Every structure is written in C-alpha cells, then in structure tokens.
Amino acid sequence: MNKKKFHYLYSLKENGIIDHAMVSFSITSKDMNEVPYALFGGYNSTQIVGGGNGLKTFKNFPNWLGTWALEGQGMYYGSTPMQKPGEDTAYPAIIDTGSSQLSIPPDVFEKIRTEWNKALPELDCTTDKTFCHVAQSCDAVSKKVKPVGFQMSDYVFEINPDQYLYKANDEKCYFVIHKCRLPGKNKNLFLIGDAFLRHFYSVYDFDMDQISLGVNSHSKGQVQMYKPGERPADLVQSETS
Fold this sequence. Notes:
By secondary structure, this protein is of the alpha+beta class. Helices cover 17% and strands 32% of the residues. It has 6 helices and 17 strands. The strands form 3 sheets. Strands 4, 5, 6, 7, 9, 10, 13, 14 and 17 form a 9-stranded mixed β-sheet that branches. The chain has a 5-stranded antiparallel β-sheet with strand order 2-1-15-16-3, with no helix packed on it.
C-alpha cells in the first residue's frame, strides 16, 4: 500500500476514470469463439452463470510470494480425496492470469497420477518433462477418467475430464494438470493459470484485498462450484453413468 501511487489501478481511480481499484478477466481459448478481455473498475455480470449472485468472494490468502491466492485445502478425483481437507497440508493456490499452468504439489500429483494409471496402464509421465500423455484420442480418454475438484478457501471448483485433457493430435492426448516443478518450497503450491481460469470469470479487488470467482457463461455445464459436501446430485449420477 505504500507504493499505491505507482499502481495503474489506483492511478485510474484517483483520476476519476474508474470508481473502484478493481480489474476482472474473462479468459478464453481459440475453440470458445469469444474474445478474451479485461474490465477495469468492475465486472460484467452477464458473463457469469447466475449473474452477480453466481460470483463468490474470497479473502486473499497470504503467502510467501505475495501474490493473489486462495487457500488450497484439498483436491478430489471424482469423490475420492487426493488431498484431505483439514488433515493433509494446505498449500497456497496462486491465482495467475499470466500463466497457462495448472500445476499441483508433487505429493498430491503422485496420488492422482496413480489413479489415472489404474484407468490407463499405458499412461506416459516420463517422455514429456511436464505433461502426462497417452496414445489415445481425448474422446476415448475422457470416458475412462473422472472429474477433478479443487477445494480452495472453503469452496470446491470442479472441472470435467474434457477441461483438463488437451488434444495434441488424433493419436495423443495430454493431461494439463501436472506436477509443480518450481524450485525449493515453491513446488509446494497450486498454480492456477488459464487452463482453469478460462472457465471461471475472475475479479481482483485491490481496495478490499479480495478475489471473486464465478462460472464463466461460456463454460456453463462444463465446470461447477459448490460448498464442500454439497456436490450436486446430477454430478454424482453423471459420474456413475
């Protein structure tokens, strides 16, 4: 705060261009047929499933990197915990609009890799230095693996297999959730980049030191947000079927 006079958002606010030191993002990929944008001073409720009511606000979680973050409390593969909230170590979940990454701590990654391996014995996590992949079409792979849920700051954000699989070509499918390879203690964090944020409209309130997230309208039905223990019944039915 002692350097706020150098900050572009506070400069916009102090000069009367915007009312709030706030910026929001709608991130897209090429296949979404939408233009990505940043909005200064507020957010676009029409871009959020449920409008303003669909936007959930979280206090910025303090971390040693000093960045925007939530508390990474748990992670689920389907309904099975890979990182148990309240029991296993919680890690900072760095919200990074400048990254394409969806990285997870090594100990959590090894658990989910084991689950993927059960469904896909031919899974290759060594040839490529970052991403696991399999010599099958993503359409075939998506039917064999389960949704992944990230519990952050007392909310679960769940993405379906189609959202964490990447089609390199007809013969190879990559998993974009991967092990964090940053050095030292920085490996023990979730790095939440646009592989995740393209599905969630994000708002950064510098005045209140808060982050807000809501399901982006272009990802309706592809991802979900819910309180722990309140996973919608239709998701459970879908996974079972």
